[in-house]
């Protein structure tokens, strides 16, 4: 099967050329970008303490940023599209590593690591005990369904896109990302309120 290179032939295509390529044949253009760029992102993430799944997540997030800017007309390129996506992915991975370090508890001393022999119900604030599923419920039916389908039932994004009547897998990926960010933000806000005294 003969394939055509839909990415513009110039070494650094303009944002307008990329936008046109994405609008005329999005799937093939993104596939070519994926094939050329993902190995570089995976290598960077693996070399900096991440996993293959971390690399996929970071790459998809970077691709969403690239796609939204390219189609929205706000993309400014000074290098190739793959260089841009790699740079965004590196920044996202750096940010994720910082977030993980802030949540890392390895620096706690022995006194903090020891659990009490018995926890009495009086020491636990029932209002603070909210499960992740309760946060998911608060997101609404659409987000709840997408997140549970993907993370709990491990359905492929193609199936989720069909079930929720998205035009394509990319739309389902973007919506999953937005729902996940809403969930993270709501959990962070509650944790910040409940643990601000510590």
List the SSEs and their pairings.
Elements: H1 15-24, H2 26-47, H3 52-72, H4 81-102, H5 110-113, H6 132-138, H7 141-152, H8 157-163, H9 169-194
Helix pairs in contact: 1-2, 1-3, 2-3, 2-4, 3-4, 7-9, 8-9
Give short descriptive properties of this protein.
about 200 residues, mainly alpha, 9 helices, disordered N terminus
Structure explained in plain terms:
With 198 residues, this protein is mostly helical. It is 66% helix and 0% strand. It is built from 9 helices and no strands. Helix 1 packs across helix 2 (26-47), helix 1 (15-24) crosses helix 3 (52-72) and helix 2 (26-47) packs across helix 4. The longest helix has 26 residues, at 169-194. It is globular. It starts with 14 loop residues before the first helix and ends with a helix.
Provide a quick synopsis of the model.
With about 200 residues, the protein is mainly α.
